[in-house]
Design a protein that fits this description.
- By secondary structure, this protein is an alpha/beta fold.
- The chain has nine helices and ten strands.
- The strands form two sheets. The chain has a six-stranded mixed sheet with strand order 6-7-8-3-9-10, with helices on both faces. Strands 2-1-4-5 form a four-stranded antiparallel sheet, with helices on one face.
- A hairpin with a 2-residue loop joins strand 4 and strand 5.
- Helix 3 crosses helix 4, helix 4 packs across helix 5 and helix 5 packs parallel to helix 6.
């Protein structure tokens, strides 16, 4: 249910790839300053859901509102600019430096020269890349590239940052830095929509969690509420996840 405290509302969202329904009646809300975790096995529909929300997929059914207003990011650029997307696939240019990448994206967002200087310095600091800002991105480790990917998503100070598996496939040091950066963003009041396979990250970071399975949102709540739902208040999030989605391997 949408209230005055709702930033993003997703109601009865549906999306199909041909005859296969990837998102099947998904509904949830995110409040200002809230971190909402979207969890699920491979193929559960998480990436399709956030792709609809971010305007990467059109032709969905349902209702999206942002700040109480109709939200159409696939067709309205001003709506899309309210979001900062940090995709699972890297969206940066390897033959440019970090600073050149950020300058390019800053110009797309029509930031002034003074804004560009301030914002680029700020997100480089968050990403821990200030000392390497003049190096070509192709010389970066995978973790450094992930951190730059995050910096790009923060550059225009979006109302909601959407992160799809931002810590996947990186070394422990980079994963820790990324997680600490997200925790700092949360502490500053930044709203986040976050998908991850790391249950301990979700348990530590998220105020509220939605668990998807086979295109449906099967449960939402705080980690404690989800544990109560499966009948074991002492259950950790991984136990809850397996109880709600099953133990069948998902290799697709």
């Amino acid at each position: 249910m949408e209230t005055d405290e709702t930033l993003l509302s997703v109601a009865n969202l549906e999306f199909s790839y041909g005859k296969r329904k990837a998102v099947d009646g998904v509904s949830f809300t995110i409040a200002p300053g809230q971190v909402f975790g979207l969890l699920g096995p491979n193929g559960a529909g998480k990436t399709s859901t956030i792709s609809c929300i971010c305007g990467l997929l059109a032709g969905w059914k349902g209702e999206l509102t942002f700040g109480g207003k109709d939200f159409r990011p696939a067709s309205v650029l001003a709506d899309r600019a309210l979001l900062g997307l940090v995709p699972q696939e890297l969206a940066i240019y390897p033959n440019l430096t970090a600073e050149e990448n950020l300058t390019f994206f800053a110009k797309i967002y029509n930031l002034t020269a003074n804004e560009r200087t301030e914002r680029i310095a700020g997100v480089l600091e968050i990403a821990g890349l200030t000392e390497r800002k003049s190096d070509l991105v192709r010389t970066y480790s995978g973790g450094m590239q992930r951190r730059l990917n995050l910096a790009v998503g923060l550059l225009h100070r979006p109302k909601l940052v959407v992160l799809d598996e931002p810590t996947v496939g990186v070394d422990p040091q980079s994963r820790n830095h990324l997680f600490e950066s997200l925790a700092s963003l949360k502490a500053s009041g930044q709203s986040l929509l976050y998908t991850t396979h790391y249950m301990e990250e979700a348990a530590r970071l998220c105020d509220k969690i939605g668990i998807m399975n086979e295109g449906k949102l099967v449960a939402t709540g705080t980690p404690a509420e989800l544990a109560e739902r499966v009948g074991d208040p002492s259950a950790d999030l991984e136990q809850v996840f397996l109880e709600l989605t099953g133990r069948k391997l998902r290799d697709d």
